């Protein structure tokens, strides 16, 4: 299926097959419904696709005996078949009239799938009928029987196949309808229909929970993915002569100005330090020393942008930011909305991820005597 410039893309569906019984995973619930690192295996896998910005729809294929589990999911489900390819076919048929032009087919048991792997498969589909992640085989390979080596196998050109396996929707639907069954995966179905399939980089964390030992290994992967960091920042600037202050990127007329090497935006500095703190990367002074004239009267947005870029480079996104300004005057309430808008613009966030509020110190201390303004901030960073 090709898209002309006049035919806009119709979107990408994720089809997660979860109708297996998990017989190799040992006794107990089917592996996809077992708890792991705080939620069920299936919840982790589904969340990875729901959270992906380029996935427009998620459909899960479940076993008829698992209806109680299926009903607990926040995404639509459809019953699968007796084999993996029958389950994939059932899912594709359920999506057939929905108008998606791409589909990513994924094993529910690969709960460690990353945003990067999903993105790479989707991106490759711009140039090919199909794309799937895989890892080159690095161990020596043998043939064996009765605990004896019966031969050796050249590993050159051999890959370990993973999912999600992505395809142009119509092409893989036609291929599955034509296939006689018994395929190991959807790449085999695609190849039988002469579709071209590109290999993209897989990841060791994207392994399939198959045997009992795999649960502990996957738990480690998922706990690593759950990396959430918290940072705090605190800053103070004294008043000096002047006619306005800059707070959280907004200029406010006032009887005094704030004194500082840069624009003395005490709120923005506290937020910036909270982000550096969450990254264990020191504070503004370390990245922009006050001894350097370059930062004299600088717009503090430069500092905040730097902290956000550093977070992105280290693989984190900002979850939310909360800042409290401590002063008797100026009154912050009338400007809070403009501050949240400006701060969210600089950080590339939605406005509901940024909170700016204020308190007085009941006329106590240096803020109470109106000698300056203090600011306190918290930021959460989430491993992307
Ligand atoms: N009839 C089937 C068989 C498998 N699957 C899914 O296909 C993937 C293949 O992984 P596999 O490890 O083979 O899963 P199971 O079939 O559940 O495991 P086992 O072979 O150990 O029973 C899993 O996500 C599984 O839920 C499916 O949807 N329908
Ligand atoms: C599709 C698959 O995950 C590719 O590696 C795999 O073939 C399915 O699992 P199974 O253990 O072969 O049933």
From TrEMBL:
Residues 229-384 are annotated as: 2-C-methyl-D-erythritol 2,4-cyclodiphosphate synthase. The record marks 24, 31, 261, 360 as: Transition state stabilizer. Keywords: Isoprene biosynthesis, Lyase, Metal-binding, Multifunctional enzyme, Nucleotidyltransferase, Transferase. Its cofactor is a divalent metal cation. InterPro entries: IspD, IspD/F, IspD/TarI, ISPD_synthase_CS, MECDP_synthase, MECDP_synthase_CS, MECDP_synthase_sf, Nucleotide-diphossugar_trans. Bifunctional enzyme that catalyzes the formation of 4-diphosphocytidyl-2-C-methyl-D-erythritol from CTP and 2-C-methyl-D-erythritol 4-phosphate (MEP) (IspD), and catalyzes the conversion of 4-diphosphocytidyl-2-C-methyl-D-erythritol 2-phosphate (CDP-ME2P) to 2-C-methyl-D-erythritol 2,4-cyclodiphosphate (ME-CPP) with a corresponding release of cytidine 5-monophosphate (CMP) (IspF). Pathway: Isoprenoid biosynthesis; isopentenyl diphosphate biosynthesis via DXP pathway; isopentenyl diphosphate from 1-deoxy-D-xylulose 5-phosphate: step 4/6; Isoprenoid biosynthesis; isopentenyl diphosphate biosynthesis via DXP pathway; isopentenyl diphosphate from 1-deoxy-D-xylulose 5-phosphate: step 2/6. It holds the Pfam family YgbB. The record marks 155, 208 as: Positions MEP for the nucleophilic attack. This is Bifunctional enzyme IspD/IspF. PANTHER family: 2-C-METHYL-D-ERYTHRITOL 2,4-CYCLODIPHOSPHATE SYNTHASE, CHLOROPLASTIC. The gene is ispDF. Its EC number is 2.7.7.60, 4.6.1.12. Residues 1-228 are annotated as: 2-C-methyl-D-erythritol 4-phosphate cytidylyltransferase. A divalent metal cation binds at residues 235, 237, 269. 4-CDP-2-C-methyl-D-erythritol 2-phosphate binds at residues 235-237, 261-262, 283-285, 359-362, 366, 369.
């Amino acid at each position: 299926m090709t898209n002309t410039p006049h035919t806009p893309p119709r979107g990408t569906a994720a089809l997660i097959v979860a109708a297996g019984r998990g017989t190799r995973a040992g006794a107990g619930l089917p592996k996809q419904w077992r708890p792991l690192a705080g939620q069920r295996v299936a919840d982790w896998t589904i969340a990875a696709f729901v959270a992906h910005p380029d996935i427009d729809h998620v459909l899960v294929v479940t076993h008829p005996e698992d209806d109680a589990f299926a009903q607990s999911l926040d995404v639509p489900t459809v019953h699968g078949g007796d084999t993996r390819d029958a389950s994939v076919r059932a899912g594709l048929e359920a999506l057939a009239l929905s108008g998606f032009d791409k589909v990513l087919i994924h094993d529910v048991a690969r709960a460690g799938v990353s945003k990067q792997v999903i993105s790479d498969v989707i991106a490759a589909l711009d140039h090919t009928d199909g794309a799937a992640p895989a890892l080159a085989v690095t161990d020596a390979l043998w043939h064996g029987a009765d605990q004896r080596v019966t031969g050796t196998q050249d590993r050159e050109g051999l890959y370990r196949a993973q999912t999600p396996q992505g395809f142009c929707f119509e092409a893989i639907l036609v291929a599955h309808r034509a296939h006689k069954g018994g395929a190991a995966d959807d790449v085999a179905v695609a190849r039988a229909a002469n579709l071209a399939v590109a290999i993209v980089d897989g990841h060791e964390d994207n392994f399939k929970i198959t045997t009992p030992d795999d649960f502990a290994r996957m738990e480690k992967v998922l706990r690593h993915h759950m990396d959430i960091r918290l940072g705090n920042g605190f800053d103070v600037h004294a008043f000096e002569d002047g006619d306005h202050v800059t707070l959280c990127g907004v200029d406010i007329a006032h009887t005094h100005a704030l004194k500082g090497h840069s624009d003395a935006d005490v709120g923005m500095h506290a937020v910036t330090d909270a982000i550096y703190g969450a990254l264990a990367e020191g504070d503004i002074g370390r990245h922009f020393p006050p001894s350097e004239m370059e930062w004299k009267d600088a717009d503090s947005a430069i500092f905040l942008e730097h902290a956000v870029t550093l977070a992105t480079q280290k693989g984190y996104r900002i979850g939310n930011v909360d800042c409290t300004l401590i002063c008797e005057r100026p009154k912050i309430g009338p400007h809070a909305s403009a501050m949240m808008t400006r701060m969210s613009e600089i950080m590339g966030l939605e406005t509901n991820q940024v909170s700016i509020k204020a308190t007085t110190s009941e006329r106590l201390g240096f803020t109470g005597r109106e000698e300056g303004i203090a600011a306190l901030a918290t930021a959460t960073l989430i491993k992307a």
